[in-house]
């Protein structure tokens, strides 16, 4: 599919966010002028790209799926990457999204033309204009690799977990894993049995609790197919439980010691060595950083052919990794499990607003937006999974569907009221972010005694949503025109 010269709504990214929005737009009007550009070869976003061994969702799939596209085909309560990817491809085909997607098409730059009230967009496959741009590129889409001394001299193989090198066989190799986050806890247990030795470099330990995963039986699947309301009820019960968990994290931190007891019991059961248990016990309140779900991570670290190094890193040599106390660990392969760049999204460098400055320049390392969705100075731009929309307890898909409803309502308002451009007021954005930051002050993410990727360059928590997700949905259930400056098409034509 080639690019048109002009499109009304241009969506950047074909993962959960972009697909969910496009599907909603098409449900409200199949004739809608909407196009998705995707830098990858297919839809699926992070579930297309992250193919490392053991990759799976850490939110129950009954909730981590579109409400408008339930599936009775999940194999486990926590789905694995291949089936989530298959699910997204099926949704794209069933909803008609595929005919609106241009793949292998990366956004290079988008400039707002205030005189004409359009975006001038340059992509890797050509240029076009758009009335509206939606950045649905995700917060966890661009791998972060630390700038480590000597990395360019290493003679072995290196790659990030998000860009797994499947052509490289780890059998019999000495492998260094940098990082102990959500991806490491999934792939290290998978590679340890076939590697000669795995050395895991830990900056800070994380609280780990069991993943209550199970296989979904054939009778359950048949029941879901025959009685969809049962599956809907299960989704509702999972959502309610997760909201209760969110309440504990955000408002009832006095209950967190109960979760800590579970995590410590899990650690005692799986790790025999008391010194190793000490290294794996965090010194911050549980929940301050993302709690990790795993039934085999801790047990794997207790293997004789796995070493945990908690001394930090000093650099890399031609054939090894040097820790902070000067010990060199000889390795053949280095795998970075160092996460992504949620507070420095690359798409922010490609978007230029009314004053000619990029969104990244406006943010200066500290992202902020109105309802995580719009930004003053950037008319007709909508963000999905924007600042302060991340969760520590529930499914981001719920938040994305809430944003989809808000954006679709805004598009309807533009059409029905002859609006050329909407821009959120600076005062509305300022008040909103003040409330968000105030709400975060009492949460475990802010006062739990840890440093995390939730904090940006200014020390603000610009990532987390501070309270219940139903409150977010309530705020985004309608497009609040009163907090925007609107420019009618007739006014725009008069100016032109």
TrEMBL record:
One annotated GO molecular function: monooxygenase activity
Keywords assigned by UniProt, alphabetized: Monooxygenase, Oxidoreductase
Pfam families linked to this entry: Pyr_redox_3
Keyword Nucleus: no
InterPro entries: FAD-bind_Monooxygenase_sf (IPR051209), FAD/NAD-bd_sf (IPR036188)
Gene3D superfamilies, per the entry: FAD/NAD(P)-binding domain
UniProt-recorded name of the protein: Cyclohexanone monooxygenase
Source organism: Rhodococcus oxybenzonivorans
């Amino acid at each position: 599919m080639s690019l048109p010269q002009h499109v009304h709504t241009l969506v950047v990214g074909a993962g959960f966010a972009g697909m969910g929005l496009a599907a909603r737009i098409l449900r409200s009007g199949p004739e809608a002028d909407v196009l998705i550009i995707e830098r990858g070869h297919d839809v699926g976003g992070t579930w297309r790209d992250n193919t490392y061994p053991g990759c799976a969702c850490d939110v129950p799939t009954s909730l981590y799926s579109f409400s408008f596209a339930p599936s009775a085909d999940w194999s486990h309560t926590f789905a694995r990457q291949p089936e989530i990817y298959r699910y997204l491809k099926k949704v794209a085909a069933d909803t008609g999204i595929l005919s609106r997607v241009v793949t292998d098409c990366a956004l290079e730059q988008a400039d707002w033309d205030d005189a004409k009230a359009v975006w001038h967009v340059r992509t890797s496959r050509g240029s076009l204009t758009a009335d509206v741009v939606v950045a649905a590129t995700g917060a966890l889409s661009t791998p972060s690799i630390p700038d480590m001394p000597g990395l360019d001299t290493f003679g072995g193989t290196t790659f990030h977990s998000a860009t797994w090198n499947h052509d490289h066989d780890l059998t019999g190799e000495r492998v260094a894993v940098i990082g102990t986050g959500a991806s490491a806890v999934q792939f290290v247990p998978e590679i340890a049995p076939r590697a000669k030795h795995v050395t895991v470099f830990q900056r800070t330990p994380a609280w780990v609790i069991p993943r209550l995963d199970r296989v979904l039986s054939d009778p359950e699947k048949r029941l879901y197919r025959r009685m969809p309301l049962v599956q809907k009820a299960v989704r509702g019960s999972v959502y309610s439980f997760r909201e209760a968990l969110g309440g504990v994290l955000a408002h009832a931190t006095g209950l967190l010691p109960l979760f800590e007891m579970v995590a410590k019991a899990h650690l005692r059961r799986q790790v025999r060595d008391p010194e190793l248990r000490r290294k794996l016990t965090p010194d911050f309140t549980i929940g301050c950083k993302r709690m990790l779900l795993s039934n085999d991570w801790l047990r794997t670290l207790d293997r004789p052919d796995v070493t945990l190094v908690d001394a930090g890193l000093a650099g890399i040599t031609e054939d090894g990794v040097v820790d902070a106390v000067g010990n060199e660990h000889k390795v053949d392969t280095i795998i970075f499990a160092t996460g992504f760049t949620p507070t420095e999204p690359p798409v922010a460098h490609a978007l230029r607003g009314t004053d000619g400055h990029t969104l990244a320049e406006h943010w200066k390392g500290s992202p902020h937006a109105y309802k995580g969705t719009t930004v003053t100075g950037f008319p007709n731009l909508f963000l999905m999974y924007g600042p302060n929309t991340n969760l520590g307890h529930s499914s981001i898909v719920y938040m994305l569907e809430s944003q989809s409803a808000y954006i679709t309502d805004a598009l309807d308002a533009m059409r029905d009221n002859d609006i050329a451009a909407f821009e959120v007021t600076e005062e509305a954005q300022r008040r909103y972010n003040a409330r968000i930051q105030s709400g975060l002050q009492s949460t475990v993410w802010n006062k739990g005694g840890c440093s995390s990727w939730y904090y940006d360059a200014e020390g603000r928590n610009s990532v987390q949503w501070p309270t219940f997700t139903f409150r977010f949905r309530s705020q985004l259930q309608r497009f609040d025109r009163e907090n925007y400056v609107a420019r009618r098409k007739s006014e725009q034509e008069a100016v032109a």
